[in-house]
Amino acid sequence: QAHLVESGGGLVQPGGSLRLSCAASGSINRVQVRAWYRQAPGKQREFVALIGSASNTNYTDTVKGRFTISGDNAKNTVYLQMNSLKPEDTAVYYCHIQTIYQNYWGQGTQVTVSS
Q1: What is the maximum span of the chain, computed from C-alpha positions, in angstroms?
Q2: Average pLDDT of the chain?
Q3: At the N or C end, where does the chain have fewer CB atoms within 10 A?
Q4: Torsion angle of the four alpha carbons 52, 53, 54, 60, in this order, in degrees rounded to the nearest 10
Q5: pLDDT single digits (tens) 12-29
Q6: CA-to-CA distance for 61 and 28, rounded, in angstroms?
C-alpha cells in the first residue's frame, strides 16, 4: 500500500513564500489527478489546486496568481509553490492523488502565516 508524505510546511510572515512537496512511497499507477487541499481550524477541508494527467491545472479563486502546482508524473510527486502568503492561508495542507482505483491522502503539513 503506497503512502503520501508531505513536507515543506512551517511558519512564515505575511508576504513570504513556502514550497510544499509530496512524494509517494510505493507505486501508484493510473493517476488521474494530483492535488492539494487545506483545512483551517474550525473549517471544512477545501480544494486548493490540482494538476491533471495532461498537466492541466486548476486553482481555487483565493490562490490564483499566488500559488503554482507542479509535479512529476513518473515519480508521482507533486509540489505547491506558495507566494505572497496571507494569514488566511494558515491551514493544514494535504496532498491528494486520485487514481482510477482509489484515492490517496497524505498526513498533512502545517502552514502558519503570521507576523
Answers
A1: 43
A2: 95
A3: N
A4: 0
A5: 999 999 999 999 988 888
A6: 29
